[in-house]
Design a protein that fits this description.
This is LysR family transcriptional regulator. GO terms for molecular function: DNA binding; DNA-binding transcription factor activity. Pfam families: HTH_1, LysR_substrate. With 290 residues, the chain is an alpha/beta fold. It has helices at 3-15, 18-25, 29-43, 57-82, 101-113, 126-134, 225-233, 280-288, and strands spanning 48-49, 54-55, 89-94, 118-123, 140-147, 164-176, 196-199, 215-219, 239-242, 252-256, 263-270. The chain folds into 3 domains: 3-82, Orthogonal Bundle (Arc Repressor Mutant, subunit A); 89-164 and 265-288, D-Maltodextrin-Binding Protein, domain 2; 167-262, Periplasmic binding protein-like II (D-Maltodextrin-Binding Protein, domain 2). The protein has 8 helices and 11 strands. A hairpin with a 4-residue loop joins strand 1 and strand 2. It starts with a helix and ends with a helix.
């Protein structure tokens, strides 16, 4: 199977539209249709219905394989080109709330020991960091999310099975300091069904609000935690956040969660392939290990 055809197929499957896939790939819609037809001809089966665009059973099976195959091809390319890359390079990716004082201190130490270290930092959503690390575009990825105590994060494909926990702290409900709930010692999320919430998927690592039935009073389509906490302090809605983010904030109160019990967890992802044990990525990973 031609990888270019597989990539086009994945775009159509994910967007649910030939025209949207064509726009993403900078192709004409006719070219996308021809590539899908060529792939179906090669496999001898229909992969998509056309109106509406939906995956057939065979198409759903191929989608699962295709995403893994494309990631492995990119990982192989990155692993080969890494052998000819100049020394003293570190590429690190983070989700917005994965950055912390210990990460900053570890990076400062690594850079101090190598004055000529070329460092690139990418802050991006979870899916992008996971994929970029799996393909080798990043040396290391730091991702965060909420989970039950001691449980690993549920990473999207192709998540790193070797991910390492580097930090964990309680999850809390953030409210303005003058809010009626501010003096509570704990709160159950189900009891807050009548409250307004801020839906901020680019900052808080929930794909949706943490409990069914909660209402989003405001949608924040950005990735700055300072903007989100400012919105909460101004009374625009509540949010579940890691406790450390509210430390020292006089305008916000952190209410511990009763049910469900959640923690905010940060995990380290590593690029596949052989890594220089004395290189900056290995040294940084060692400093971040608990």
């Amino acid at each position: 199977m031609d990888p270019h055809l597989l990539r086009t197929f994945v775009e159509v499957a994910e967007t649910g539209s030939f025209s949207a896939a064509a726009e993403r790939l900078n192709f004409t819609q006719s070219a996308v249709s021809q590539q899908i037809a060529a792939l179906e001809s090669d496999l001898g089966t229909s992969l998509l219905t056309r109106r509406p665009v939906r995956l057939t059973e065979a198409g759903e099976r191929l989608r699962r394989h295709a995403k893994i195959l494309l990631v492995r091809l990119e990982a192989a390319r990155a692993d080969v080109t890494r052998t000819s890359a100049p020394p003293g390079r570190l590429t690190l990716g983070l989700t917005p709330l994965a950055w912390s004082a210990p990460v900053a201190a570890a990076l400062t130490r690594i850079r101090a020991e190598s004055a000529r270290l070329a460092t690139r930092l990418l802050v991006a959503p979870l899916d992008r960091i996971v994929t970029a690390t799996a393909t080798g575009a990043l040396d290391l990825g730091l991702v965060d999310g909420f989970t039950a105590p001691s449980d690993p994060l549920r990473l999207p494909e192709p998540g790193d099975p070797r991910s390492l926990r580097v930090a964990e702290c309680p999850a809390v409900v953030a409210v303005p300091s003058g809010h009626p709930l501010a003096r509570r010692t704990s709160v159950d999320l189900a009891d807050l069904a009548d409250a307004y919430w801020i839906d901020a998927p680019g900052v808080t690592p929930f794909r949706r609000l943490p409990v069914d039935g909660l209402r989003a009073g405001l949608h924040y389509d950005g990735a700055e935690s300072t903007v989100l906490t400012g919105l909460i302090a101004a009374g625009h809605g509540l949010a579940v956040l890691p406790e450390w983010l509210l430390t020292g904030r006089a305008d916000l109160a952190a209410i511990p969660l009763g049910v469900p019990r959640l923690v905010h967890r940060v995990e380290l992802l590593r690029a596949p392939g052989v890594v220089d044990p004395a290189g900056p990525a290995s040294l940084l990973a060692a400093l971040l290990a608990p």
